[in-house]
Structures are given as structure tokens and as C-alpha cells.
Amino acid sequence: MVNINLSFEEMWEKIIACDRKYDGLFFTAVKTTKIYCRPSCKSRKPKKTNVEFYHDINEVEAAGYRPCKRCQPEVEHSPQIEIVRNIITFLVNHYKQKLILKDIAEQVGLSPYYLERLFKQETSETPRTYLEKIRIDKAAHLLKSTSLTNLEICYEVGFQSPSNFYKVFRSLKNCSPSEYRKEFQNAFE
Questions:
Q1: Beta bridge pairs of residue 67
Q2: What whole-number distance in Å separates Cα of residue 120 and Cα of residue 115?
Q3: Which CATH class is domain 77-189?
Q4: Which InterPro entries does the annotation name (predicted)?
Q5: Alpha carbon distance 2, 163 (integer Å)
């Protein structure tokens, strides 16, 4: 299994947001309770200092953690979930590249049509909309943590056109990248 390229801070943001997109790609382990969860778990959030992240369920269990009774991270929900996880891992690890459905399908050994149907069935989204959400998550992180311009961030996260970047950002975050950065900076002043 390939590890997902996310920093501790990015994984922390995903668990605070209870983001289902990352379920199965990493696990949140709480040192004080010795319990591990999915990123989307709705349980009360632990202190950041008490958290460790694991990419593999066997690793987290070997480290002595037991599964959360609420989110049941050890239970697979569908026989196709492993294929979908591989697709999502590929998208997260290659979000900067220009990706088309054919490239993704070749990566996981499926036809583009079947991949899109399966992915939509499991996630309620197309691979493209999922990839856009990953890119916007990355852009939001960069807006908060760097001084890169909006245009630099647009290309850094894999968008080919600034107009599409602004359109997708606004549709997912309900504001422009500049407004998002300003709002974040105002929250910490």
C-alpha cells in the first residue's frame, strides 16, 4: 500500500473537519486512550499533542491501539473500497499533475467508464470533482500557511487555468481565495 502525501497539519485539518474523503487512507490514534479512528469520526476531538497518524491499519493495531466503537475503522464497508482507496491515494499523491480519467483508469487497471461508475457509486462523486476538492483543500492549506500568490497556488495545486481555479474555489469554499486568506488572517489577529 502506498502512503498518502499529507503533512501532520493537513491530516489534523481533515480530522477536525471530519472529512470522509480520507477514510481508510490514514488513521488517527490517540495516545492517551489507545484508540484509533477514521478521519471522519464524529467523536470528541483529542488534544493535538496526543495524536499520532498511521497509514496502515496493521501498523496502528501493532502499536497497541484498539478500534473506536463509534466509527469502527476496522470494518470494510464495501468489497470495492480497496479499489476506490487506491484511486483516492493516486489522486492525492498526483493532484499537481494534469490528470484525465484515462490516466487514472490505467493506474488502477480498470476501464474509464467502469472506474467512474464504481467511484461515483462508492463516494457519490466523480473522480474529477473529488480531485478538485483535493486541490482546493491543498490550496486552502497553502493560503493559510504560505505567502504564495493566488496564481502561484493555482498552478501549484494542479489547476491548468486561473478562471477554473477561482470558479471551483468559490463553489467549494463560498468565497474567493483572497477572501479566504483574509478571513483566516483576521481570525488570528
A1: 36
A2: 8
A3: mainly alpha
A4: Ada-like_dom_sf, Ada_DNA_repair_Zn-bd, Homeodomain-like_sf, HTH_AraC, Me-P-triester_DNA_alkyl-Trfase
A5: 33
In the block, residue with C-alpha cell 472506474: 115
3-state secondary structure 18-52: CCHHHECCEEEEECCCCEEECCCCCCCCCCHHHEE
Between 32 and 74, the higher pLDDT residue: 32
Q: How many CA atoms lie within 13 A of 142 on its CB side?
A: 19
How large a percentage of the chain has pLDDT more than 70?
Answer: 95
Q: Where are the beta strands (DSSP E) in 49-172?
A: 51-54, 66-67
Domain positions in the chain are 8-67, 77-189
Tell me whether strands 51-54 and 27-30 are parallel, antiparallel or unpaired: antiparallel
pTM, entire model: 0.68
Tabulate helix, strand, coil % of the chain (nearest 5).
Answer: 55, 10, 40
Give catalytic residues, as residue numbers. 37
* Cell numbers given for 179: 477572501
Phi/psi for 37 (5° steps) reads: -135, 170
pLDDT tens-digit readout, 97-153: 999 999 999 988 889 999 999 899 888 899 999 999 999 999 999 999 999 999 999
**Per-residue b/e over 6-37, b at no fewer than 16 CB within 10 Å?**
beeebbbbbbeeebebbbbbbbbbbeeeebbb
Please name which of 1, 37, 41 lies closest in space to residue 17, comparing C-alpha atoms: 41
